[in-house]
Amino acid sequence: MNGPMNGLERILAAARFQPTDRVPFVPQLFGHAAATAGVRLADYLRDGRLLAECQLRERESYGGDAVFAFTDFGIEAEALGAQLKYYDSQYPDIVVPALAPPDDAARLAPPDPAAAGRLPEVVRAVGLLRAALGDGACVAGAIAGPMTLATQLYGTETALFLAVDDPARFGRALDLAAATALSFGAAQLAAGAHAMVIFDPAASPAVVPAEFFRARLQPRLTRLVAGLRAAGAPLIWLNVAGPTAPILPHYAEIGADIATFDYYVDAATAQRLLPRTCLAGNLKSLDFLAPAAPIGPPVAALIRSFADRGGFILSSGCEIPPEADGAALRALADAAGAETRTCRG
Amino acid sequence: MPALSAAAFDPLIAALLAGDHAAALAETHRLRAAGAGAEAIVTAGLETAMGRLDEKCTVEQFNLLEIMLVGRAVSVVVHELYPEGVLPETGRATFVIATLEGDVHDLGKNIVRTVLLGKGYRVVDLGRDCPVDALAAAAEREHARAVLVSGLISPIVPQVRRVRPALAARGLGRVAVVAGGAALKQLAPADLDVDYVAETAFDGARYLDSLVAKETAA
């Protein structure tokens, strides 16, 4: 290691448990970039150029080692026929799901990332971000995991009941979701994404039992990761929020390079459950809405807890919301920068 | 007809806890045929099942799918016992529940409603996307002991902070305010200006149980 590393080098090294000049800093800032730039979230989510510009500005403001071409959890469902309602300052809601309760997902085909809905805008954003940053920082693409898209296709309540009442039909929704994720992810990789983040909040043990994850979701996630790898993904990041301790051990079998752990899981437990997978976490996202205490001490403690192990990215356990306080984020960035110790691999 | 033993309700309790709504309905029919009244089925069946679920549902073990299945089974039994859709006045406290304006996610709220109904409380559900003023008006009209607000998304936080002032404006300062849901539970009661932030539906129900028990004892 000679001299300071750039953001991409830092994240790649952490993912490989190699030494880094400092701990990579990757707060999950998505729609917050629109707020920082003073643009409507509804515009940010529908315009790839605007999204890219805002993400670059956000990185200048807070100094993260990655940028995210993530929009919202409705984007794939919209591309498959769902109707969304957009807002100025919050994420869209699905007002008409793509599938009615009696429908079978087999009647749908994965949407074309070059033409369907807003998918091309995300692909465009990835390309613009990569053109602007080259290999100087990590350009992260984003896809919804199979469980999350399946719940978006039917609506959460309908989907969860279907998972129990008609497992075969729900399985076809999961298969469509996985195929959509692979196709959309491959398009983002072709556009220049260094990392592919699989966001699957509906796979959390807060939503479905760990046994459901192991039997129904893990096989599909494993195939998805293999497919993304074959499509050239240098890094694959599995991002599930909530109390994930019962499912974390399976991430290594799934093949993820980076695993999010949320504030429900302490650092020691996460390290024990995933000894050879890079961990990203676990700051509490909503602490940045109304900070009650200085962020520096907990950040320093978190970084110290990984000092001997390496394989760590300082991040939040899930998205830091668009309305998060800018001063609190600057304090986080300062605290992250102050902790310049090298992580050993 | 002699009163049924507690063991007679075990199959119903087992069906409810398994989330098997068809079996729960069949057991309800069997109990009614054996002479059990609706109130006994609520008390010895539904409330007992909810109590056992409460014991099982730690934060680590609480998951939406299993709770929804139990909730569906409870709803099927309640509908069978009270086709008009409401439990009779039992003298227990009334709570008003809503997802506030700007948030259309109401699964969490529906689970809380089911848990409280299962415990025999009266619950007035104002649905989702509910204005704060409508919530306060309902609390006054229904003589509520507490209002419960559920929030999945963080933009709802400013709305939650408006609830207590809206209640106070109607002279309802003694009405407790309880918050829950994925976003709200990450914040402290002081951040939200509420009395309690529930980690799960059962955690919230326990808080309300203690609130009501204190007043009953006083």
Keywords for this entry:
heterodimer; A: 345 residues; alpha/beta; TIM Barrel; two-stranded antiparallel ribbon; 9 strands; 12% strand; globular; B: 218 residues; Methyltransferase, Methionine Synthase (B12-binding Domains), Chain A, domain 1; Rossmann fold; 2 domains; 5-stranded parallel sheet; 10 helices; 5 strands; 51% helix; 10% strand
> Residue share in helices of chain B?
40-55%
Average residue-wise pLDDT of chain A:
95
**Per the principal axes of the C-alpha atoms, what is the gross shape of chain A?**
globular
Largest sheet of chain B: 5 strands, parallel
Q: What structural class results from the helix and strand content of chain A?
A: alpha/beta
Q: Give the total of beta strands of chain A.
A: 9
Largest sheet of chain A: 7 strands, parallel
Q: Total domains of chain B, how many?
A: 2
Structural account:
The complex is a heterodimer of chains A (345) and B (218). Chain A has helices spanning 7-15, 32-37, 41-44, 48-62, 75-79, 119-133, 146-154, 156-165, 167-190, 210-230, 250-254, 267-273, 296-305, 326-338; strands spanning 66-68, 83-85, 93-96, 138-144, 195-199, 235-239, 258-261, 278-283, 312-316. With 345 residues, chain A is of the alpha/beta class. Chain A has one domain: TIM Barrel, CATH 3.20.20.210. Chain A has a 7-stranded parallel beta sheet with strand order 1-4-5-6-7-8-9, with helices on both faces. A two-stranded antiparallel ribbon of chain A has the order 2-3. In chain A, helix 7 (146-154) crosses helix 8 (156-165) and helix 8 (156-165) crosses helix 9. The model of chain A has no long low-confidence stretch (mean pLDDT 95). By secondary structure, chain B is of the alpha/beta class. Chain B folds into 2 domains: 6-81, Orthogonal Bundle (Methyltransferase, Methionine Synthase (B12-binding Domains), Chain A, domain 1); 94-217, Rossmann fold. Chain B has 10 helices and 5 strands, in the order ααααβαβαβααβαβα. Chain B has a 5-stranded parallel beta sheet, with helices on both faces. In chain B, helix 2 runs parallel beside helix 4 (64-81). The model of chain B has no long low-confidence stretch (mean pLDDT 87). The A-B interface holds A 89-91, 93, 156-157, 160-161, 163-164, 205-209, 212, 243, 245-246, 263-264, 284-287, 289-290, 292, 321-323 and B 19, 59-60, 62-66, 68-69, 72, 102, 104, 107, 153-155, 157, 182-183, 186-188, 191.
